[in-house]
Amino acid sequence: MSLCAPFETILTRFARRFPAGERLASDPVQFPRRYAGAADREAAALLAALLAYGRVGSLLAKTEEVLGVLGPHPSRWIRTSTPRRTLQALSGWRHRWTTPHDIAYLLEGIRGILNEEGSLERAFKRGWSGHEANLRSPLIRFHRRLRDVDPRPIYGRGAGLRTLEFLLADPGRGSPLKRWNLFLRWVVRPDDGVDLGLWRGVLTRQLTIPLDTHVHRIAFALGLTRRTSPSWETAEEVTESLARVDPGDPVRFDFALAHLGISGACKGYQVPAICRRCDLAAICTLPARPLGLEEKSPRRGLAPVGARRQRRRFFLKPLTNACA
Questions:
Q1: Which tens digits make up the pLDDT trace of 85-144?
Q2: Is the full-model pTM beyond 0.85?
Q3: Could you tell me the CA-to-CA distances from 300 to 175, 176, 213, 289 in Å, in that order?
């Protein structure tokens, strides 16, 4: 997918001018950034990233509640606590599909890794060679290691694990893995005031964009993908397009693109009073009316609820329109 020089200039300028510091308060990366120690930042980052679904206000509040239980040093709590203690401390807590049992299982998985490897980074690098085009394969192995916990003492015999399967989504399946890729972006990219720069050696060019509803919609409008549904292949295609702008660090644009939608600054369709102030206006092809899309569920993604003909015309526009 080719991108013209004006496109690259405009996108780079947009990311540079984006007021990232002003948006930290509405992003879950704020949680790991509050800790000084690398071990606490790493543990808080994994927990906060995996809980990053649903409405922003709700996910921030629920993550705050869990980290409040873990205290000023989350890694210390995880190393010394037990699932029973976690279940008691989180009694009555719930974040949409995620239950206290899911959190207890996750923390037990982290505890096993910390006790055996000393850090999540070391466990991840057990399955990483440095030659992969992306981090999906080592992530699959890391996921298996994290799931190496007997669920029966936590959930009871015969208990369903559907909520856990959602929290710890299998990287081997076809979903875009937004929350896993968000965690990897945080720990791999250098500390720029947003990301954490915790892991050394893993290459930023291996990262895949954390594709959520907002990034997916804006990526369509910018011609970064032809795909009409969020999937791993869509995330790869968007990342490959961004790599033509910055081959060494394609996901550096993620925070700005995501918060353009999260903040409501981008409505998903043309609003002249808003769009004329947007740095991306010259390369954006948003439709004049809402497309009639909504997020049915994290598993089903974008679903058409109207304006299907207009939606089809929009999605099938040539990708060169931004530079025509």
A1: 999 999 999 999 999 999 999 999 999 999 999 999 999 999 898 889 999 999 999 999
A2: yes
A3: 10, 12, 11, 23
Same domain, 218 and 301: yes
Total domains in the chain come to 2
Query: Are residues 139 and 257 both part of a single domain?
Result: no
Residues 251, 4, 186, CA angle at the centre, nearest 5°? 5
Instruction: Give the C-alpha separation, 259 to 261, whole Å.
Output: 5
CB 258 within 8 A of CB 242: no
- Note whether residue 170 is domain-resident: yes
Interatomic CA distance for residues 15 and 256, integer angstroms: 6
Long-range contacts of 143-148 (CB under 8 A, 24+ apart): 143/168, 143/170, 143/171, 143/172, 143/180, 145/109, 145/113, 146/106, 146/109, 146/110, 146/113, 147/109, 148/109, 148/112
**Statement: residue 240 has pLDDT above 60:** yes
312: containing domain: 213-323
Output b/e per residue, 274-297; b: 16+ Cβ within 10 A.
ebeeebbeebbbbbeeebebeeee
Note the pLDDT tens digit of each residue in 83-102.
999 999 999 999 999 999 99
Q: Quick one: which of 311, 317, 308, 301 has its CA closest to 269?
A: 311
Task: Say how far apart CA 44 and CA 70 lie, in whole Å.
Answer: 9
Indicate if 201 and 224 belong to the same structural domain: no
Cα→Cα distances 219→234, 236, 239, Å? 10, 12, 10
Beta bridge partners of 58: none
- Rounded Cα gap, residues 226 and 59, in angstroms: 30
Backbone angles phi, psi at 162, to 5 degrees: -65, -40
